[in-house]
Amino acid sequence: MILCAGEALIDMIPATLADGEPAYLPKVGGASLNSAVALGRLGADVALCTGLSTDVFGRMIVDHAGASGVSVDLCDFSDRPTGLAIVTKRDGHATYGFYDAGSAMRELQPGDLRTGPVPPSAALFGGISLVPEPCGSVFEALCATLKAAGTLVMFDPNIRPAFVTDDAAYRARIARMFALADVVKISDEDLAWLTGAPADDSAAMDAAARALLDEGPVMVCVTRGAEGVTAWRAAGDLHVPATPVAVVDTVGAGDTFSAGMLAGLSRDDLLSREALIAASEPELAKALTLGVRAAAVCVARAGANPPWASELDG
Fold first, then answer.
1. Are 298 and 256 in contact (CB under 8 A)?
2. Which of these, 47, 96, 116, 212, has the minimum number of CB atoms within 10 Å of its CB?
3. Is the peptide bond before 134 cis (omega within 30 degrees of 0)?
4. Closest to 112 in 3D by CA, of 82, 135, 140
5. Is the confidence at residue 37, as pLDDT, over 70?
6. What gap in Å lies between CA 226 and CA 11, rounded to an integer?
7. Sign of the torsion angle spanned by Cα atoms 128, 247, 34, 5
8. Mean pLDDT (the chain, rounded)
9. What angle do CA 3, 289, 126 make, to 5 degrees?
10. Whole-number Å distance between alpha carbons of 154 and 271
11. What does the pLDDT look like over 172-208, one tens digit per residue?
C-alpha cells in the first residue's frame, strides 16, 4: 500500500455566472489528495492520511477520494472546518491564498494519525501540511516513524511561499525531510526558492540537484515543466522529455507526476531503497515516463483531474 500524507482541502476556483458576475466554485484539491487520487486511478492500493472534517466540504473530499479507490480509513475525523485555498489563475498558472486556521488538518495532534497494522510500502509527504503547527510536526514525526519501519519515503516540498510565515523554521523542516527521504521530487521553481539558484540557469539547477543527493536521498527528480524531468542518482543523471500537449492549466501537475512515478515503481517492485539503488536506467525511465505522461493528461484539462490507467495504457 502507498500512503499519501498531507493536505486535502477545497480549492475555490474562479468562475463566471450566467449573468457575467464573478464567482468561485468549490473543487476538491490539496497536493496529497491529488496524488492519492492519481494513484488510485492508476490502479495502486492507496490510502490518504490526514485530518478531515465532518462538514459538507469534508464529505466532498471523502466522496471524491472514494470514487478513485482511495481509502480514508487512516484519516482523523473531527468537526473542525475544512481548509480552503482561494485560487487565482493567470496565463495558465495558479497562485493560492490559504484559509486554514483552526482547520481539521492544521489542528492535528500527536497520536491522531494511524498507519495501519502493516507499514506501507511507500509514503509520499510534502505540501503546505508541513508549514503550520501543530500539524507540521505531526506529519514530520509520522515520516520519521515510517522511515524507521522501512517504508520508502518520497518527499515533494511543493512550496507555497505565500503560506510560509516562519522562513527559518520551515527551511529547517525541509532540510530534515530531505534527510529522511529516499526519493525527492522537486520543481525547478521550488529548487530555486530553496537554494537561490536561478531557475533558468540549467548548470546551477543541476548543481543544486546534485547537492541534494548529499542530504540522503537515493534519487532526486527535478521537474522542469515543458522541458521534462531529470532524475539524479549517484550513478549519474537520467532525463525524460515532457509529452507535448496544449496546456489548459497546471493545477495538480506535479502531484500527478509524483503519483505516476510511484505507480510505475510499484508495478516493477521497486518500492524500496535497496531496489532503487540497484534499479537500471531503463527501469527508472519507465517509471519516470509514466509520471510524465500522467502529468501531461492532467495539464491538458481543467483542474486537478488525473488520468485513469485506461487513458494511458490504451
1. yes
2. 116
3. yes
4. 135
5. yes
6. 25
7. negative
8. 93
9. 35
10. 10
11. 999 999 999 999 999 999 999 999 988 888 889 899 9
Residue ranges covered by each domain of the chain: 2-313
Cα first-last separation, the chain = 25
CATH superfamily, region 2-313: Ribokinase (3.40.1190.20)
- Cβ atoms < 10 Å from Cβ of 46: 29
Give the integer Cα–Cα distance in Å for 267 and 17: 44
Burial-class residue 55 by CB neighbours within 10 Å (0-12, 13-18, 19+): middle
Among the ranges given (138-152, 234-248, 300-314), the one the predictor scored with the smallest mean pLDDT: 300-314
Q: Is there a contact between 290 and 261 (Cβ–Cβ < 8 Å)?
A: yes
What are 172's three cell numbers?
529547517
CA angle 263, 152, 231 (to 5 degrees): 65
Beta carbons of 3 and 123 less than 8 angstroms apart: yes
Q: What angle do CA 179, 185, 188 make, to 5 degrees?
A: 110
Q: Can you give the pTM of this predicted structure?
A: 0.95
